Amino acid sequence: MKKLVLATLALGSVITSASAVAAEEVNVYSYRQPFLIEPIMAKFTEQSGVKVNIVFAKKGLVERLEREGKLSPADLVLTTDISRSLELVEKELVQPIQSEELESNIPAQYRDPADQWFALTTRTRNVYSAKERLGKLPELSYEDLADAKYKGKICTRSGKHPYNVALVSSMIVHHGEAKAKEWLEGVKANLARKPQGNDRAQVKAVYEGVCDIALGNNYYMGKMLNDEKQIPWANSVEINFPNQTNRGTHVNISGVSLTKYAPNKANAVKLMEFLSDDVAQQMYAEVNYEYPVKQGVAVSKLVSSWGEFKSDTVALADIAAQRKTALKLLDEVKFDL
């Protein structure tokens, strides 16, 4: 009888232990794509033993969090730009956290002052120029895109895409609302066609002779150079880092936030710290041609080949604060029409 009791107690201990292990998980809602995120999460699980459950979506995750409310299983949200991070804050769907490791790994410029969002990578908003028709433009500025000499030569995606909204917001920060509107009117007057497509479609348009200048994030150059069909597009342009003679190139982010009702908060914070540290930062750099947010982590060889650049040092929180004004200006100048 004593042996039976001991055996039962031992079995109960095993079951309890197994349940504890099973409970070690974290749930992520991700705007970022599986090819990048899944290997990083697998490495986190390998090192921590914490299982990561991920929901991927191009849109609708904010609305999903709103619907789910306190019953949401989500612990973290991975975002693709400062606009989405700000939207989560504005709708009170995230909560602040204090972490010495996050503060150490992520420069203050790339953190929310209220600790509700944290950048994980940075990406530049580049200007691609036709290699044969214009060549390299080392002294080009964003302001120059409104110059009449570029009339009919510029291609871009929708002005209301978050990447362009952030750029317009930065122009408001640097020049004020009136000057930013004047600049937008100038850029619109210089468009070769109605805004359309994604960033790579603009480089394709340069390759096809539709325009000579295209706006696009830096990592799309890496993606094109690793796609057999798109290599000719990439080889037809030079990648330029605007405003190198003054304030520096506009930088956006991918980020992470802790949800308001995170059921696995401790594990979520562990994952946030992992994503900001060396292993994950290097994976971001190598897999998606982004710039690590943690200082000292090397960029990929391909990204390094594009050269060093000076980035705009204005705080992203200040840029994010101008998002609504930027959207208003885009409507006023009828940029996408």
TrEMBL record:
SUPFAM superfamilies: Periplasmic binding protein-like II (SSF53850). Pfam families: SBP_bac_6. Belongs to the bacterial solute-binding protein 1 family. Transmembrane segments: none annotated. The keyword Metal-binding applies. The keyword Transcription regulation does not apply. This is Fe(3+) ABC transporter substrate-binding protein. GO terms for cellular component: outer membrane-bounded periplasmic space. Fe cation binds at Y219, Y220. Gene3D superfamilies: Periplasmic binding protein-like II (3.40.190.10). Keywords: Iron, Metal-binding, Signal. InterPro entries: Ferric-bd. GO terms for molecular function: metal ion binding. Residues 1-22 form the signal peptide.
